[in-house]
Specification:
Oligomer: single chain
Strand order of the largest sheet: 3-2-1-4-5-6
Strand content: 5-15%
Shape: globular
Largest sheet: 6 strands, parallel
Radius of gyration: 19 Å
Distance between the termini: 38 Å
Structural class: alpha/beta
Number of helices: 6
């Protein structure tokens, strides 16, 4: 049974790129379920949702999932290349489709324009667009900075002792062309992330890494912009 309290029930829209089966997806589903159990109205917007490869809650009616299929000219990649570029473009397509729907009723009969908060994770590209065109609050959940995942280099936590047992040898660094390709992507990630009203991370370790590699983003102890 949903919990009730005296606080206002919010309409929360999650924006997630690929609603498949994975750790990030499990976290999004659990967060959405938790909010729903507390009496909030939740919907998940995604660019990919395969009914045959997803968590049950996203396919059995427990959670409302709105799937906007990207056009054919926005694949996930081209011959295994340009993943992050197309990920940005696919999220922008998803976001614009969502914003266009704000004056229409969703499957529950409620107007999408009544959305109170957007919950964005993995990709931060859409954050400034959401804030500019909707004026709504945006929460960003950072699983781990993409700029570090892309380099393939080991990240050591300076607060943990380094021993022969726990030391991870560095992987080969990026070539010149990939560095040129990644530069605007990394700048975009940091700049758009800084536009969020609230930034959440999944661990103290990620919090330390976030602060170290996104030095321009100043947050208070609650994750709000300072």
């Amino acid at each position: 049974m949903a919990q009730t309290n005296n606080k206002k029930s919010l309409r929360v829209a999650f924006i997630h790129p690929d609603l498949g089966i994975g750790g990030a997806e499990r976290l999004v589903v659990d967060t959405a379920l938790g909010l729903q159990e507390r009496g909030h109205v939740v919907s998940i917007y995604t660019s990919h949702h395969d009914p045959n490869h997803c968590f049950d809650e996203t396919n059995n009616g427990t959670l409302q999932v709105i799937h906007y299929q990207p056009p054919v000219f926005l694949p996930r990649s081209i011959q295994g290349k340009f993943h992050i570029l197309f990920a940005h473009l696919r999220q922008l397509h998803l976001t614009l489709r969502l914003i266009r729907s704000l004056n229409t009723a969703n499957p529950t009969g409620a107007s999408n324009k009544d959305i109170d908060v957007f919950f964005v994770d993995q990709l931060s590209t859409c954050i400034p667009i959401l804030r500019l065109l909707t004026g709504k609050r945006v929460v960003f959940y950072c699983h781990f900075p993409d700029k570090l995942l892309a380099t393939g280099e080991a990240v050591e936590d300076e607060n943990s002792p380094t021993t022969a047992e726990n030391h991870t040898p560095p992987r080969p660094k990026m070539g010149f062309l990939k560095k040129i390709y990644r530069l605007p992507m990394d700048l975009l990630e940091e700049k758009t992330t800084s536009n969020a009203d609230l930034i959440l991370v999944n661990s103290l370790f990620t919090s330390r890494i976030f602060k170290r590699y996104f030095p321009s983003i100043k947050l208070d102890a609650q994750g709000k912009r300072a």
